[in-house]
Amino acid sequence: MSGTGPRTGGTPVAQRPRRRVLSDEVPTRAQFFSSALDGAPRWATGALAAVQAALLSLLAIVLPAIAAFVATSADPTNEGVSWWRAVGVGASVWLLGHGMPTEVGGVTVTLVPLGISLLAVFTCYASARRSGTATRSGFAAGVAAYVAFVVLVALLVGAAPLACLRAAVGAGVVAGGGLGLGLLRRPEAPSWRRLTRPVWTRVAAPVRVGAAAGLLAVAMLVLVSALLTALWVLAGRATIGDVVRGLGLDAVGGIVLAVAELAFVPNLVVWALAWLAGPGFGVGTGTEFAPDGVVAAPLPAVPMLGALPTADAAGPATWGAPAVLVLVGVLAGWYVHRRTAGGPWWSSAASVGVLGGVVALACAAMVTLASGAAGPGRLEHVGAQGWLVGLAAAAGVLVGAALAALPADRAVRRRLTAGLRSASSRAGTPDGPTPGQDRPRPGQGRDRSSSDTRQSSMS
Length: 459
Hints:
The chain is mainly alpha-helical. 63% of the residues lie in helices and 3% in strands. The strands form three sheets. The protein has a two-stranded antiparallel ribbon. It has a two-stranded antiparallel sheet with strand order 3-6. Strand 4 and strand 5 form a beta hairpin. Helix 5 packs antiparallel against helix 6, helix 10 crosses helix 14 and helix 12 packs across helix 14. The N and C termini lie far apart (148 Å).
């Protein structure tokens, strides 16, 4: 034993050196989505995000135009044409996607390339989601900055005041939709349900259900129209290939043509919707593409137009195309039935009516945007009549929705049965008591005759 005595403490443990790490904190979702614009005022952040989105979509259109200029600069016919002219053409096409008419060779073009509109909405969405601030001031400043940027570009290309006004309206719609959706995807943003609750709670329940069912029906119609467009492209791929080979384009020209055609693919989808509804559409004066027949005429050498249905495709198999709208209405009507079950008998009927109104307005707006003038002569009328397609689409969807929602509602069946019984009872008793006269109770006549008999016997 040592002189120091036994140890009473714990066994000493050697301290291990800590492992060096870059950070002990796990980055949160908010930190991951933070940007270099953080720290700036909220309105400035929204404005810078909107300008960034506008520049991205503008460059996506201007750069192919510059590439086409560079590829054709050696052509003697292009002598004296500067690259700034190519920038102006690309900017005019970009403004056309915002609804501003443009002049091409003295001809006014009003056909909006919906692909460019969707591209602008997407860039606004992506920029707001990455760099925006989910506040009212940030959203308002973003929309104002985007509108100001579009108007500035319109002034630089020499647009008239009325054209600048149309560009401002279109820019407001594009920025409001894209920036709003992007800000709602920010981690600090409230949910869509919470944001719209103060408005929706003041709207009657049948109106809310009908509006939701109408948007569902419009989404299904667009999906079916997109599938129909894909079938048209597959069926007309031989014609499309012949047109491409006939143009004899080089690599740069082919890329520019592909970008230009992609800008009008959504227009073709909307035309397919007009075809499904029944009225059909036209590509030039005197042409008609409808389920019951095709009246064709010489078309421009555009490969996308090779996908249009031919006269041989129209027949008994296509006459029932509007029945697709009835099927879509059945699905939307079943949604209405599930949401209005247990309510008053008129709630399902009111929801079906609101559904039809939403479908009519949405289809009419889409067809109107996808129609306009695409060139001189016969090409001044391209597309379809929005109000006619909207009414036809709403009629088909209404029929299907009424067939699915009304007979399945127990309250509607009880109300209808009571009405039929009341009508049959009125029809079966034409000589009944007049209003205000009491109907004789059972045994009332017998009691009166017995009392008369007793009075005669007493006398």
